[in-house]
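Record 1 of the preview.
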Amino acid sequence: MSYEYPVSFPKGNPLVTVTHPTSSLWVLELHNGVDSRLTDVLLLRGIIPAIDTVERHWRDNWREGKAKKDENLCKGALIVVGNRKQDKFFSNGLDYDNAIKDPSFGTNFFPKIYNPMLQRLLSLPIPTIAAVNGHAFAGGMVLAMACDYRVMTDGSKRNAWICMNEIHFGATLPLSLAAVLKAKAPNAQVLRKIILEGHRFTPKEALAVGLVDRIVPGNTEAIIAEAQSLAESVHSLPTKGAWGLNRREMYRELVESLSRDVMTIGVVADDAAAKARL
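->
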């Protein structure tokens, strides 16, 4: 099978591109405007098929490497980054105001669209690194947290926050978002600040509490360079083929929770139930 890079999804009007700058590295770049809102089209026609392409290519390389006894062909890592033409956003999360206008949003978006994207990312058999080149809000923060490692701008060029801001506009967290955060937050105190306080973590705060692994001064290209350095420190881990399987076992409860169709209870419904009960 031949591969030509960059690969764009969808073709003609790309929301996602995949490049392959080294033999063991793939870069998935979000292009849905400057702030990379996580719309249904971006997820279904962009991110998910892009991850499929990366896995197919890596597995082709891995099988060839095993046949030739060449472990260099078996190495691999994926970097996910916001639009490289700006230094302000990794992802601004869901296009919530427009999404909720769809009457099927409450029942379909997470179980049919967002959760499969998370499952796909968590099942990828190579390490994943989020290059957080700006703000990562709500669903954008969860996308970054679903990756194995996070390299973030240090905020010296412009402000950058990583934050779950749902509490500030009265939105309840779906099971899948809460599950990722519970699996990845370092402790209960940090989880409380994320979910119940909607704290805007600066890069230094995020590094101090363990939400990100490295912070980097400079623009998006400097962040990608640092993410690539991190990727090259872990890209040999999948060479034996067990890395993805061990990650899947590590996060078994999280991955299984993403398949549950649980209806989120909104504020209005919760108050109506309380009124009836009290």
